[in-house]
């Protein structure tokens, strides 16, 4: 993986899973929900509209690919996809699998329950589950 600067809060809260053609895929270190964050590898961008049209389209495509992959893998009742950026200004897009029986349903996941970090074994299992996604892009 090429060197790419991540916001320190993203580095603290997440684990890098891999790269799609434009975006880095992070796993939020909270085992309460399957929760990935897509970060375009473009520096000094805070908003989607700041990207040139071709890159906006690529981000949308990769977001759709990640959403579909996570939806199918975890049998989501609902996929929550959002780019907020009020605290972390670097452009990043949350992809959260929601289940009707999850701890926060039907409310947003932010701040609802304390984060439960993945164990080493759980993290290895998540990496294995996502590897086929990255293998598709060589």
From TrEMBL:
GO terms for molecular function: catalytic activity. InterPro entries: HIT-like (IPR011146), HIT-like_sf (IPR036265), HIT_Hint (IPR026026). Signal peptide: none annotated. It holds the Pfam family HIT. Residues 10-100 form the HIT domain. It comes from the Bacteria. This is HIT domain-containing protein. It comes from Endozoicomonas montiporae.
């Amino acid at each position: 993986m090429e060197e790419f600067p991540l916001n320190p809060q993203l580095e603290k809260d997440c684990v890098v899973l891999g790269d799609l053609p434009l975006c880095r895929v992070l796993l939020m270190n909270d085992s309460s929900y399957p929760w990935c964050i897509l970060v375009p590898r473009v520096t000094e961008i805070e908003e989607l509209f700041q990207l040139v049209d071709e890159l906006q389209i690529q981000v949308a495509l990769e977001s759709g690919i990640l959403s579909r992959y996570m939806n199918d893998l975890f049998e989501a009742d609902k996929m929550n996809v959002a780019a907020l950026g009020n605290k972390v200004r670097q452009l990043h897009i949350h992809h959260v699998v929601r289940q009707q029986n999850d701890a926060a349903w039907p409310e947003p996941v932010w701040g609802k329950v304390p984060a439960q970090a993945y164990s080493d074994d759980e993290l290895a299992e998540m990496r294995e589950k996502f590897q086929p996604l990255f293998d598709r892009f060589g």
